[in-house]
Amino acid sequence: MQQAELKDIITEWLPGATFDENGQWLNVNVEPKDLHLLAVKLRNHEHTQFDYCFCLTCVDWKTHLTMVYHLDSTKFRHQVVVKVKLDAAKPEVETVSDLWKTADFHEREVYEMFGVHFINHPDLRLLILPDGWEGKNPLRKNFEDPINMIKL
Amino acid sequence: MIEESFTTAEGDLVINVGPQHPATHGVLHLVITLNGETIKKVEPHLGYIHRSIEKMSESLTYRQFIYVTSRMDYLSAHINNHACALCVEKGLQIEVPGRAQSIRIIMDELTRIASHELWWGAMSMDLGAFTPFFHAFREREVINEIMEETCGARLTMNYMVPGGVMADIHPNFQRRVKDFITLYKKKIHEYDELITGNIIFQNRMKNVGYLSSEDAIAYGVTGPAGRGSGVSCDVRKHSPYEIYDKLEFDEVLETAGDSFARYLVRIREMNQSVRIIEQLIDNIPDGDFQAKTKAVLKLPKGEFYQRVETARGELGVYIVSEGGTTPYRIKYRSPGFSNLSALDHMARGSKLGDLVAMMGTLDLVIPDIDR
To answer: Which domains does chain A have, with CATH numbers?
Structure first.
């Protein structure tokens, strides 16, 4: 599916979605409450079938966080990037690990590194960081660790 | 982390495998729930070699951060560097000279062969055979020497830079690569005679660690592990970079989805890598090995993503730039991380002894998982 067609079909599902076409792939910005709905459609609709989530991450913009989902279809070989703006003080979004199982680990990584809470995630625990790091989110821009961090 | 093995109320035994265990090839720690000898659950605990390369990269310039990535998947150091260089080039719209492109692909494919050879030796050793390790290292050593001569390093090469490669190839390079190919072709049948056709190994790998193609896609399993499940996921074919679209090679696919299928994919992939090198080694174009770039690189504001195929699967480099000399945020989508996430699903219901075959054929490299 071409970018224009993708844009049309997503607008049909979510009239409130905004787009950014300057990058490599079509970027879709949605509200946190609409994310799961859109993800289900993108994953299951016969013309989109985004069955492969090849990157799931978060960016800290200081004023807010942005979740970034890179999706690919192994059938149609088209890609789309879905972005969700989250509140920096209380970042919360529904999990997509029920749709893409790879999101299970990736969301756990985002949870510990950025402190994003994934609603309905089956097993939201620390994955990489050792016990006792709950609440400290090292990839946040405001993270300070005077003992272990060397500023370059 | 559990301090000691214990038995749950249901009578299941919970044990640690790793972080110091020869079959995990590094510091991977698995907490395994067992019912008798049958695996009920595998829970990876990561982070023993976590260096936070992503955070580190945020304070390094676009020339510096590439070197850190050699330490991620150290068996695909060239390919990691390549991915980062490509991503920076994408942002700056640098045209890479043809000579550099050919050298880069030859290096990538040599790395892939070296990585698969190490995997073959190590995996065979996990399953109880010591001899293959020496066979694999005999050929791998030749590649290491080629690398040493041209790049000055044997493992963490740091040879690819934005705009091309750091130095021109050594005068001996072409001759030695051709010598290697001759040697490889003479010796590769030994791999099949020792292991591939060996009934003991086949019994230990066939029908062990089955992963269906739907699950492989859902878990994001890529590389030889994904192709062993019949998922066509070779980035070199689907979103070609450099001159891969002009080269002739096959994407090796197996449909069985078990450990033996993943094994076969890697063995056959080495032959495809040799095929690629053969097409290029006599046709390296003349000219510059590096494009002219500014001393200080500044990526324009925006986001850049580059996918490449490492020896373990799809590596993604995601750079978010604010227009400065250092990246605002970098994410490495490492293949090992996603491949490991499927281990629990694969292992449930099989015997503890088979777990080694599964981990072996997933080809886990722990620094790549932890980053």
So the answer is: 3-94 (3.30.460.80)
Helices and strands, counts by H and E, chain B:
15, 9
Measured in angstroms, the CA of A33 and the nearest CA of chain B are apart by: 23
Give burial (CB, 10 Å; 0-12/13-18/19+) of B154.
middle
Q: Which domain holds residue B62?
A: 50-370
Q: What's the Cα-to-Cα distance from A48 to each of A26, A34, A42, B47, B221, rounded to whole Å?
A: 13, 17, 6, 36, 20
Q: What is the CATH number of the domain that holds B269?
A: 1.10.645.10
Mean pLDDT, residues B290-315: 89
B9 domain residue, yes or no: no
Chain B residues closer than 8 Å to A104 by CB: 341
pLDDT in tens, B36-67: 889 998 989 888 888 888 888 888 888 888 88
Give the pLDDT confidence of B328-354 residue by residue, as tens digits. 999 999 998 999 999 999 998 898 888
State whether ipTM is beyond 0.85: yes
End-to-end CA distance of chain B: 20
Q: Which of B59, B233, B318 sits opposite A57 (nearest CB)?
A: B318
The whole-number average pLDDT for the span A44-62 is: 89
